[in-house]
Specification:
BURP_dom; BURP domain-containing protein; five-stranded antiparallel beta sheet; binds 2-acetamido-2-deoxy-beta-D-glucopyranose; signal; six-stranded antiparallel beta sheet
């Protein structure tokens, strides 16, 4: 479980000079437009940031299924992010020509001018390495760089003629404590055979690591929570019904004081992650 939450946290601030000669090679991100500035010398430059991806700092709340009962109160932690725009997939036409490979790192520096050795460059390299490693046994994994590639991957698992649906937790407001007690207001199981969890990876545009566990029984819920501060969160809650193949050292089992197979293990999803299910 632990390795799904990539150990990387940073604010990527890229300074990009848009020289007309190279601008066609440069990926334009929605966030770039927000902060584009004209400089005194007449050259326009863009300062765009990649949202802080505080995956290392975020500790998902692990629990078991029976704690989710309407009226009960549980402590849950959700990370704060301002908005989802850095986590929205770009269309394929914007990303398909950009290599996604650690072999192409020198070329990538043309698209994303980051200083070699900087935190940002390291994060890009780590994400590429993570995406290139062998998938864990029994899992069909993929790093997806566009909405169309997500659709293709999901249809390959769910069925080529199926419509897919993406579910996410709602955002918490900036005044909501990261960890607080929430009262469970409602819990609805999303009836689905196949569940594909996807986790946001640190990268200059939206990249998701999706992993489908073959022959694993998962249950997926939308749980409405009301925080002590009054904030409501509609949260994605996933239960892995069979923890017997898990390592005794997995963070979730240690946290819950469980042995592999002793119980299902469930966790809430932060808003920047997503789950794909059949429509
Ligand atoms: C949640 O409530 C319990 C019981 O009142 C309390 O002991 C605990 O400190 C609270 N947790 C948080 C994060 O506020």
């Amino acid at each position: 479980m632990g390795n799904e939450f990539v150990t990387c946290s940073f604010l990527l601030l890229l300074f990009l000079t848009l020289d007309p000669g190279v601008s066609s090679n440069v990926l334009r991100l929605p966030s770039m437009d927000l902060v584009e500035q004209k400089e005194d010398d007449g050259h326009s430059s863009s300062h765009f940031h990649m949202e802080t991806v505080s995956l290392a700092n975020y500790d998902p709340t692990f629990t078991v299924m029976k704690v989710i009962q309407v009226g009960k109160t549980i402590p849950v932690s959700f990370p704060y992010i301002k908005d989802l725009s850095p986590y929205q997939f770009l269309p394929r036409e914007k990303t398909h020509h950009i290599p996604f490979s650690s072999k192409a790192i020198p070329e990538l520096h043309r698209y994303f001018p980051v200083f070699p050795g900087s935190k940002q460059a390291t994060a890009i390299e780590q994400t590429l390495k993570f995406c290139e490693r062998d998938p864990p046994a029994g899992e069909a994994t993929a790093c997806l760089t566009s909405f169309e590639s997500l659709t293709d991957y999901a249809r390959g698992i769910i069925g080529s003629d199926s419509d897919i649906r993406i579910v996410r937790s709602s955002l918490i407001s900036s005044s909501t404590p990261t960890l607080q007690n929430y009262t469970i207001m409602e819990s609805k199981e999303i009836l689905t055979g196949k569940v594909i969890p996807c986790h946001a990876e640190p990268y200059p545009y939206a990249v998701y690591y999706c992993h489908f566990q073959v022959n694993t029984d998962n249950k997926l819920f939308m749980v409405s929570l009301r925080g002590e501060n009054g904030d409501w969160v509609d949260a994605v809650f996933l239960c892995h019904m069979d923890s017997s193949p898990w390592s005794v050292e997995s963070k979730a089992l240690i946290r819950l004081g469980l042995k592999p197979g002793e119980s299902e293990v469930c966790h809430f999803f932060p808003a920047y992650d997503l789950v794909v299910v059949p429509q």
